[in-house]
Amino acid sequence: MHNHMRNFYFFTFLTMMLGLSEVMAQGPWTFTNDNEIWASTGTTANIAAGAAYSTLTINGAGNPQIVTTQANVNADLIDHVSITIQNNSDNLRMRFIFKDATGTSRYVDTDITANDSEFKTYTINPGKISSWIGTINSITIQFKADSDNNVAVDTPANANFYIDDITMLTPSYSGILQNSSFEDVPGDLANWSPNGNTTQLASTPMAISTTEFSDGNQSAEFTINSVLTGNPPQLWNSYSWSMDPGPVDNSSKLTVTWDMKATSLAGDPKVSPRWKMNISSGAVGDATQRATYGAWKSATTQWTTVTNTKELSTPTTYDDEFYDNIELGFTLKNGAVGTKLYIDNIITTITGTTLGYEDVSEINPSTIKAFPNPSTSLLNIETSDEIVGMRVINMLGQIVIIQKGSSKRLTTSSLNTGLYILKVTHKNENESSIQIIKK
Q: Lower CB density within 10 Å: C or N end of the chain?
């Protein structure tokens, strides 16, 4: 998984100088009355456009495939691809092939079902290959007979594949997290990575739930197969957020708020956030990284919002250290065998007095409302414009909270009682500000 740049403002510039290949860059490609930038070159297979999807007929080809050299995918921002097909053949494998910056072909294999009666969507992760970087133009989607990668079979008679959709899945960012609500990839944890040894991961496997969620349509699911008395496995975001506007010291605090639910309270299942940071200066000893563990929070059998606020690292011990990035993870401990625990809708904010300074003399509340105001813990933002970030500034002009992403909720529990200015940056680059009160 790649570490991406922290500012994600997406703009599309379509001018008369752009050709069709640029207009179709990165997809999605929906194959409606058109094969778009895809062709069945290189084999005897044939692709034909239809009103709702295209049909790739095997026609005796050993490697039936569709190919493009005009994908124009920004692999630094995109890790996953979803492909929707109906397989009307006996073949059992799909191969996603791309050419990297050196012109070398790389691939990811995915098992598929045969002789489908309906369309199915498969999610592929080329981002796990280190050379999936930069701009990717050459992509091939190829079909093979089986997991041994034998050549495709042309059975039953007139065997083919219906190609309905190819979509590059753009990740979302909120606070210090990528994919904070587990929604980026259907049925997949995406960038969230289970971490532990074989015994640990077997004790508590982690996956996506599409039946339990507090926000959107998915959540992270922990299943307790056995209760470990030692170190439990961890679920890490696999995205290191660069401190903005620059390195911060250990007096700054991280507030993590998340929704949580367990199917049983037997054994008192608990979850703790944890984070690891790169030390940019002032390291104690030979350390290059610092890890911190948040407080354990007990689950309930209903969706409940919990909050944990803690200094980035231990006060006094690491007072000279500054950190320039941070990655968040979660750990589950205790509980009873058979219990499932779900996590969703994670909100993160960094609070401190070393985050920079801003003018607080002007207020521009034109497009936002905040409630409840005064607030004690959570502030809800009402606006018709998409949010890309928020900052809270005290009356001395010190930036005390930075929150990136599209979330319309801000955790204020770590603030001292008093008056602040909330500045909201919108996707259209406009900025709104309003006075808020922490009580």
A: C
Residue 399, domain extent:
369-438
Question: Are residues 64 and 201 both part of a single domain?
Answer: no
Look at residue 145 in the predicted model and tell me its pLDDT.
97
Which CATH number belongs to the domain containing residue 414 in this structure? 2.60.40.3080
- Domain membership flag for residue 361: no
The answer to whether residue 112 sits within a structural domain is yes
Cα 175 to Cα 258: distance, rounded to the nearest angstrom: 12
Distances (CA, A) of 142 to 43, 94, 108, 145, 156: 10, 6, 10, 10, 18
Domain termination site, one of 120, 138, 169: 169
- Find out whether 167 and 26 touch, Cβ atoms under 8 Å: no
The first and second tokens of residue 94, run together, are 């799909």
Segment-wise mean pLDDT, segments of 10 residues, the chain, 439 residues: 36 31 64 96 95 97 97 90 97 97 96 96 91 96 96 96 94 86 90 92 95 95 90 91 83 91 96 96 94 96 94 91 95 95 92 73 78 89 86 87 81 86 87 90
| Start-to-end Cα distance in the chain | 41
Side chain identity at residue 10, one-letter code: F
- 309 Cβ partners below 8 Å, 6+ apart? 253, 254, 255, 256, 351, 413, 414
Tell which residue, 122, 55, 114, 37, has the closest CA to residue 83: 122
The answer to whether the CB of 387 falls within 8 A of the CB of 427 is yes
